[in-house]
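ok trying this again, last paste got cut off
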Amino acid sequence: MKILMLFVVFLLLVAVCWPLALLAIILFPVIWVIAIPFRILGFAVGGVLALIHALFYLPARILGHHPGRHRF
């Protein structure tokens, strides 16, 4: 559905301003390649934060606390 909506928006852009649509076709792969290192960095930062979260909650998990199960 997302691809179909993108295609419809592109066709609308072609009808309104075809030079801008042509520029978008040319620049999209370039911007995608430039964005790859930032995506890799995002995965790495997310992994490091998950590791830190696991290390902080390790003592509680060893003592028997399970997230989502509360004892009142």
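PB: full thing came through this time. Residues 18-62 form the longest helix (45 residues).
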